[in-house]
Amino acid sequence: DKNQALNHLRMSSRIDACSSRIETAVRMGQLTKGMQGVVKGMDKGLAAMDVDKISKIMDKFEQQFENLDVKTQYMEGAMN
Q1: How does DSSP classify residue 49?
Q2: Is residue 53 within 8 Å of 45, Cβ to Cβ?
Q3: Which helix (H) or strand (E) holds 80?
């Protein structure tokens, strides 16, 4: 019946919204952990003024953001 179909659509929408919030929280948790490691590494590199070490840390930082972008795009594609 029409009323039941509308209720299912509403529930589906609520589940999708909840799923998106959970995915965002997970991604932010991963990003936070990665950033903690980068900051610690930067502190060590800056303390020693080791340009090579700082460069490697920045490369790692950029790679983590690229990985996050790829995961985000994949998840968005899978949800659509």
Answers
A1: T
A2: yes
A3: none
Which tens digit of pLDDT belongs to each residue from 24-70? 778 777 777 777 777 787 777 777 777 787 788 778 878 877 877 78
Token digits of residue 20: 């998106």
CA 27 to chain centre: 3
The sign of the dihedral angle between the CA atoms of 66, 71, 74, 80 is: negative
- Residue whose C-alpha is closest to residue 76's, from 15, 31, 13, 24: 24
- Please give the DSSP secondary-structure letter assigned to residue 9: H
SS3 of residue 1 by DSSP: coil
